[in-house]
């Protein structure tokens, strides 16, 4: 078979497979190997038709050029070398390895003992795993050539969603597209996003991923996707015709609708998890380069992720792999930004986390990456893992302190009013010290992880029994409340209060300074039955139902109303924190009597009421926000309008709310309700 091909030494870059000169160039990094091979497979992916020894080059790069060969060719790598787990060496030529730079994959992954290096334990496995692993597929990249929305952070509203769960039950999307990339870009779903002001979708992981073996053994799946198999390939289950260009088509169609695409990316660990995990890709090329191990114990992985194998971002080739992957998704696949899962890991070296870490510096100077949206989840379980506020510009950060304090406020907790005010105005105590502004805070009430918005006001305890861990998994401190009954009820008063509380959360979120993120399903009261860790629930627990009662839901209309107010008032677009000498904007805080709050008022342990005004002197606009988190009605004196126009009530969480426009009248602010008044702004409500 080998005499059918012409073979040349090949080029050392780019890494991976590249179509060039009537053939394909293969290059891989494996400096400790004694020999590397490229293995070609037939179109079925079952038969290995050629195994060719590669050539070693400077820097530990192996290369070969094979012709004639073209796009679509299936291949994998095998690597010979020392197999000594105690020294962190895991070379095993019996394991077919996925190319870390593969742009496409072919075939299914199947769990079996063939993937493991030692079988039985202590003995090097001689079993070939090729039958159970996807083959890398040659796929020449073409640059994304379509116009991108490039929304400013000040205009950004993020919708966090799961590719499958968001559309797999949508009645207006063809069955073949439901739960796929092309389902997200179907006109029916785009129309839904546009109907309530979304400017960006943030997709849960779309890099190729697999389910952990312990889940498949229980008949469950890794639904969320935080178990990456390859950093370049789109997850095949989200494709209709096994064509990776469908991802680019989705991006193009969302861009045409002025909606950006942000990817939730997992560069902190891979599917080769655990000290006794499988050998699938990185581990078989250079285990100690790609994963962090305890100093002096190369057989013990550092576990800052909870998954057993933390990526070693300090190594130059690992850093290059991550940066190359990020640039690929921007330049070739067309995405607009990234949300980095457990991002503290990407800024941590042996000395701990640093805002000047090599990775963060590399991104800051990269002419491609420093122009896209960068969002960190600024915590992990490693030493010094909580780093909210520590990431450098231009990073944005998920603000869990915002989430928790706003939840506690509407839970009717006392003694937190001053902290609530800080969160409403962009968390200056967290971000201002490093010359960052309110738009560095990604504000959210709920996300994929935890209770849905509807469950947040329907359950006081988690109900994760279906996950198979005796309800031990998931967070226990949720700051949730059930409004009187745990779970589903037909009580109309309780259901009305739950709807009102969801509106309270949404109104607070949208009219806070910062960038709002709304979890998919919040706009239609999606429930997971109290499961606050539905990572393994690839079923109707997680999938949006799209029932008749959820289409054009009152919460959808409410979000749209609130976002119209946000867009109409420039204070929410202001990139710096407001202070007492700001020339354009003025913030004033009031008591229930309409008087200016004093220090004593801020320290009242029983206070559950907030009222404040925002004045834009340049545009002659003013807003008055009134939040009553107590379980009692408050009779409130509305302060005078600061401009020559009366206050008008424009939005309230109370159904069919109305108040007198007479500024001398006492206004009845219902228990557990939120209100917005405007002066000199157009009426934005749906009535």
TrEMBL record:
Top EC group: hydrolase
Key words of the record: Glycosidase, Hydrolase
A matching Pfam family: CBM_48
Glycosyl hydrolase family 13 catalytic domain: residues covered: 171-566
Gene Ontology MF: a single term: limit dextrin alpha-1,6-maltotetraose-hydrolase activity
CDD domains, alphabetized: AmyAc_Glg_debranch, E_set_GDE_Isoamylase_N
Entry-linked Gene3D superfamilies: Glycosidases, Golgi alpha-mannosidase II, Immunoglobulins
EC number: 3.2.1.196
Family of the protein in this entry: Belongs to the glycosyl hydrolase 13 family.
Xref: NCBIfam families: glgX_debranch (TIGR02100)
Name of the protein: Glycogen debranching protein GlgX
């Amino acid at each position: 078979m080998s005499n059918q091909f012409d073979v040349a030494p090949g080029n050392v870059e780019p890494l991976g497979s590249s179509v060039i000169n009537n053939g394909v160039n293969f290059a891989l990094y494996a400096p400790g190997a004694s020999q590397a091979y490229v293995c070609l497979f037939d179109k079925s992916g079952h038969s290995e038709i050629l195994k060719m020894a590669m050539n070693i080059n400077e820097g530990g790069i192996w290369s070969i050029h094979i012709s004639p060969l073209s796009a679509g060719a299936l291949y994998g790598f095998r690597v010979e070398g020392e197999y000594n787990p105690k020294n962190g060496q895991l070379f095993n030529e019996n394991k077919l390895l996925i190319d870390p730079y593969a742009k496409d994959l072919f075939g299914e992954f199947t769990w079996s003992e063939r993937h493991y290096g030692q079988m039985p334990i202590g003995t090097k496995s001689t079993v070939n795993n090729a039958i159970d692993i996807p083959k890398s597929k040659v796929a020449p990249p073409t640059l994304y050539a379509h116009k991108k929305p490039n929304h400013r952070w000040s205009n950004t509203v993020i919708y966090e969603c799961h590719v499958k769960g968001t559309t797999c039950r949508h009645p207006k999307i063809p069955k073949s597209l439901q739960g796929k990339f092309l389902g997200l870009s179907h006109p029916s779903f785009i129309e839904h996003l546009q109907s309530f002001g979304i400017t960006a979708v943030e997709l849960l992981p779309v890099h190729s991923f697999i389910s952990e073996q312990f889940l498949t053994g229980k008949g469950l799946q890794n639904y969320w996707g935080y178990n990456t198999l390859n950093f370049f390939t789109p997850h095949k289950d989200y494709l209709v015709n096994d064509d990776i260009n469908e991802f680019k088509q989705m991006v193009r169609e969302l861009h045409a609708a002025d909606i950006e695409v942000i990817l939730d990316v997992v560069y902190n660990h891979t599917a080769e998890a655990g000290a006794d995990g499988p050998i699938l890709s990185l581990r078989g090329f250079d285990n100690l380069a790609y994963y962090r191990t305890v100093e002096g114990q190369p057989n013990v992985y550092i576990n800052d992720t909870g998954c057993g194998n933390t990526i070693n971002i300090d190594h130059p080739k690992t850093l290059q792999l991550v940066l190359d992957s990020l640039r690929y998704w921007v330049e070739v696949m067309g995405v607009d930004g990234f949300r980095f899962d457990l991002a503290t890991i990407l800024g941590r070296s042996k000395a701990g986390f640093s805002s000047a870490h090599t990775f963060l510096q590399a991104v800051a100077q990269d002419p491609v990456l420093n122009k896209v949206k960068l969002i960190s989840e600024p915590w992990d379980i490693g030493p010094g893992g909580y780093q909210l506020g520590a990431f450098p510009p231009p990073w944005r950060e998920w603000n869990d302190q915002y989430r928790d304090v706003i939840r506690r406020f509407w839970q009717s907790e006392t003694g937190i009013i001053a902290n609530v005010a800080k969160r409403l105005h962009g968390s200056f105590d967290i971000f201002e010290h490093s010359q960052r502004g309110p738009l560095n805070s990604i504000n959210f009430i709920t996300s994929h992880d935890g209770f849905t918005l509807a469950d947040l006001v329907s359950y006081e305890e988690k109900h994760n029994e279906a996950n198979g861990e005796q309800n031990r998994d998931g967070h226990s401190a949720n700051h949730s409340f059930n409004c009187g009954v745990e779970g589903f009820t037909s009580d109309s008063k309780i259901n009305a209060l739950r709807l009102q509380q969801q509106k309270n959360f949404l109104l607070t979120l949208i009219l806070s300074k910062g960038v709002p993120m709304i979890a998919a399903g919040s706009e239609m009261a999606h429930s997971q039955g109290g499961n606050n860790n539905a990572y393994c629930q690839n079923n109707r627990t997680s999938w949006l139902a799209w029932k008749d009662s959820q289409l054009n839901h009152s919460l959808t209309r409410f979000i749209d109303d609130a976002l119209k107010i946000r867009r109409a008032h420039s204070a929410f677009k202001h990139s710096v924190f407001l202070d007492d000498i700001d020339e354009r904007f003025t913030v004033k805080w009031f008591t229930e009597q309409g008087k200016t709050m004093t220090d004593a008022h801020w320290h009242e342990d029983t206070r559950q009421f907030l009222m404040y005004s925002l004045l834009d002197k340049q545009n002659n606009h003013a807003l008055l926000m009134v939040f009553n988190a107590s379980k009692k009605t408050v009779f409130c004196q509305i302060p005078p309008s600061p401009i020559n126009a009366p206050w008008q009530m424009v939005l309230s969480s109370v159904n069919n709310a109305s108040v007198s426009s007479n500024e001398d009248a006492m206004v009845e602010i219902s228990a557990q309700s939120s209100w917005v008044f405007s002066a000199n702004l157009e009426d934005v409500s749906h009535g």
